[in-house]
Design goal:
It is a single chain. By secondary structure, the protein is an alpha+beta fold. It has twelve helices and eleven strands. It has a five-stranded mixed β-sheet. It has a four-stranded mixed β-sheet with strand order 1-3-8-2. A two-stranded antiparallel ribbon has the order 5-6. It is flat and about 80 Å long.
């Protein structure tokens, strides 16, 4: 409904039917095909309308719909990816591999490599003891950490068990079940096995990434973040992408902020997010944690870029689909105080309320929260551009 409202505000106006009105942007980023002028014509003859329609470009520029020209590149990349995925699925699952090495031997060696790099299992008594040293389970962020480690342990356990069973099946020591065969095929094709990403009911078991290499690197990075947190204390900045439940992290943060303002009688239900873009480009540049709230990093801007010098949204560079966002600051504030802070920070234009998603698939299921970004133009422009912050691209 929001996007429909923006379309009507921008294009369904009284000026739309004026003779000199055009839908073409004042300064198009790329040349409009054939320099065609998109307008509502007012001809008197039927033939003139037919002629005008015949002059339409075969492919409309994304700028006609308020999008950046990069949107066309995104569309074509998705089409090509889907095509190659279909071609890969139709390839015969033969036993031969490169240079005469069988699929089974290739996968066996890959399983050996993955098992050697797989993180050690988490021992519950061990990490509970370490969490107690961090303040125990009365601290909301410690409860969140405990839940995240539990889920990561399930993933590590699942990966280790299936890899070991797969090797036994390749050696003929156990039956090669359909699940193990699917895992064999996935590993050979450098894809993530379905059971590593999804539960039996299709819910998210771990995290969804396009290749096995990216998925396993994410596993190692998540493990590193959790172990560092246990050993060295709370990180100065949180890698939000590396959490199973990013909303859980944000909720725990709000709970802690609310407790700090207990004397002011803050209520959790009345707390909203207060967001700011910091001047830190990388998490390594941060010297200390904020007094309250948290720094987060690892997000990407989709549909726009960020001017670090002037601190506001700007157009994307051609052929650059995603831009790493700076370190972001998120804390809690009361609704009344936050409305006042918005007016002071963003003036009459107001901020662009940028949606943050866990994945590039922009559904309510993966929506996290809104992050306020400064803009030197109307927020409607960036709504039409489809600008969003993504944890995974």
């Amino acid at each position: 409904m929001d996007i429909l409202k923006i379309y009507t505000e921008e294009w369904l106006t009284e000026s739309t039917c004026e003779d000199d009105y055009t839908y073409n942007p004042d300064e198009p980023i790329f040349k409009i095909p054939n320099d065609f002028c998109y307008k509502v014509p007012s001809f008197t003859e039927h033939s003139e309308y037919r002629k005008y329609i015949e002059e339409f470009p075969e492919i409309d520029s994304p700028e006609m719909f308020g999008l950046h020209p990069n949107a066309d590149l995104t569309f074509r990349v998705k089409e090509a990816t889907a095509l190659f995925h279909t071609l890969g699925e139709t390839q015969p699952k033969g036993s031969g591999g490169d240079e005469g090495v069988s699929r089974e031997s290739t996968v066996y060696n890959k399983a050996t490599d993955l098992l050697s790099r797989l993180p050690q299992s988490y021992l519950e008594d061990d990490y509970i003891a370490k969490i107690k040293k961090l303040g125990g389970m009365t601290v909301p962020m410690n409860i969140f950490l405990y839940q995240e480690i539990q889920r990561l342990q399930y993933v590590i356990q699942k990966a280790r068990f299936t890899l070991e069973q797969l090797q036994l099946a390749i050696n003929g020591e156990v039956i090669m079940t359909s699940e193990l065969q699917d895992i064999l095929d996935s590993i050979f094709d450098a894809k993530v096995p379905h059971t590593w990403e999804n539960t039996l009911t299709g819910d998210e078991f771990s995290w969804r990434l396009p290749t096995l290499g990216l998925w396993f690197s994410s596993l190692l990075n998540r493990d590193e973040q959790y172990r560092s947190w246990l050993e060295n204390g709370r990180p100065k900045s949180f890698w939000l992408t590396g959490f199973f439940n990013p909303n859980g992290c944000l909720t725990a943060m709000k709970q802690e902020v609310t407790r700090k303002h207990k004397s002011q009688k803050w209520a959790l239900d009345d707390i909203v997010y207060h967001t700011e873009v910091t001047t830190y480009e990388k998490a390594e540049h941060i010297k200390s944690s904020p007094a309250e709230g948290i720094y987060i990093h690892g997000l990407f801007l989709d549909g726009a870029a960020w001017n670090r010098q002037e601190g506001h949204l700007v157009e994307s560079e051609p052929k650059t689909l995603f831009v790493p966002a700076p370190v972001l600051f998120v804390t809690g504030n009361t609704r009344k105080d936050e409305e006042k802070a918005k007016k002071e920070m963003f003036g009459q234009i107001g901020p662009y309320e940028c949606p943050v998603y866990k994945y590039a698939s922009r559904t309510e299921r993966y929506f996290l929260f809104f992050f306020n970004l400064k803009t030197d133009s109307t927020p409607n422009k960036w709504v039409l551009r489809g600008v969003a912050l993504l944890c995974h691209t």
